[in-house]
Amino acid sequence: MGERRSRTLTVGADDGQGRGPQGPPRLLVLRALGLGDLLAGVPALRALRRGFPEHELVLAAPAELAPAAAATAAVDRLLPASAPGRAVPESLGWTGPPPDVAVDLHGNGPPSHRLLMRLRPLRLLAFAHPGTPEIDGPPWDAREHERDRWCRLLQAYGIDADPNDLRLPRPSAASPAPGAVVLHPGAGAPARCWPVERYAAVAAGLRARGLRVVVTGGAREDDLVAGLARRAGLPGTDVFGGGLPFDRLSALVAGARAVVSGDTGIAHLAFAHATPSVTLFGPVAPSRWGPPPHPRHRALWHGPEGDPHGRTTDPALLRITTDDVLAALDGLPEA
How far is it, in rounded angstroms, from Cα 126 to Cα 112? Predict the structure, then answer.
């Protein structure tokens, strides 16, 4: 995809000094969401980097995503911004003159539109919405794949964007479990969590094949990770709970034999590192969040779509069996 320009990412607001006419123009991108959302937005971020090479590209996103943002080689500064769930932040810690360009990669508005409009950017790139008729952007398509959606937005404004430009460089750190199969039972909502006993059955099947299995989980998923490890009889050295720092998680995924998870951030990290993966979809279809087309990635999906915010495992996800997952893993090419 071309040579990546080396960048040092900073985190936090600035005092606005040296900006405007005396300093580089600034481009603000709003995507205050999770890791998977950031990685799905990498093609759009890189397109903006190429389209505005002289601008300081500022990404409004959760502070903990700074290492992942740095790995994209597209972002100059991360402006900490977040809200519960997938909500729009109430405000941004923007200082100094208005952004020269603001880009809404958060949603279809109007709350995200209005958040950016309050900063009075000289130019705002966003999808059209009846609630913000002053924005003359392209129409929103709810059925569109996430990577395609944001590239189409930029293309509508004359910015060339390639939805396949999603790879991250291989981490310099060594994997803590090279060649292992990584199981990640958690997800951002209960509806996207496959039953832990089925993950344990997958672990048993893989270990019977002589493969090493490790388990990962987010910062608030220690009980889930411990429960899976206990059911699967895994040693403590193969349990990575507590939310691994991004550099260590990235090294683990990049060096894995395969990654098995629901539709969540670690799946997108596997896509970014071209690590073989089996992703269990439900209640949202892979046509909207799935992997790039390649034999190394298998998306399991039995449909139909359901409520992504449901409080129990979605029926579509429950239709995926342990045998489905093991057969998909057996069919993957080796990393």
Answer: 9
52 and 134 both lie in a single domain: yes
Burial letters for 212-247: b for 16+ Cβ neighbours within 10 Å, e otherwise?
bbbbbbbeebeebbbbbbeebebeeebbbbebbebe
Per-residue DSSP letters for 176-198?
SSTTPEEEE---SSGGG---HHH
| pLDDT value, residue 2 | 37
In a domain, 170, yes or no: no
Q: Is 121 left (phi over 0), alpha (psi -120 to 50) or beta?
A: beta
Task: Give per-residue pLDDT as tens, 41-75.
Answer: 999 999 999 999 999 999 999 999 999 999 999 99
Are 185 and 148 members of one domain? Answer: no
70 CB contacts (<8 Å, ≥6 apart)? 7, 9
Q: What is the pLDDT of residue 85?
A: 86
What's the rounded Cα separation, in Å, for the pair 32 and 104?
A: 10
148 alpha carbon, distance to own chain's centre = 14
Task: List, in sequence order, every beta strand (DSSP E) within the chain.
Answer: 10-11, 26-30, 56-61, 77-80, 101-104, 124-125, 181-184, 213-216, 239-240, 258-262, 277-280, 297-300
- Residue 201 host element (H or E): helix 196-208
pLDDT score at 1: 39
Backbone angles phi, psi at 152, to 5 degrees: -65, -35
Quick one: how far is CA 304 from the chain centroid?
23
Residue 71 CA to its chain's centroid (Å): 13
Rounded Cα–Cα distance for residues 279 and 325 (Å): 9
Pair (143, 196) in one structural domain? no
Residues in the chain with pLDDT < 50?
1-6, 15, 17-18, 20
In angstroms, rounded to a whole number, what is the distance separating the alpha carbons of residues 117 and 122?
10
Are residues 264 and 211 part of one domain?
Answer: yes
The vertex-166 CA angle with 117 and 196, nearest 5°, equals 100
Query: What is the model's pLDDT at position 5?
Result: 44
Same structural domain, 269 and 322:
yes
The count of domains in the chain is 2
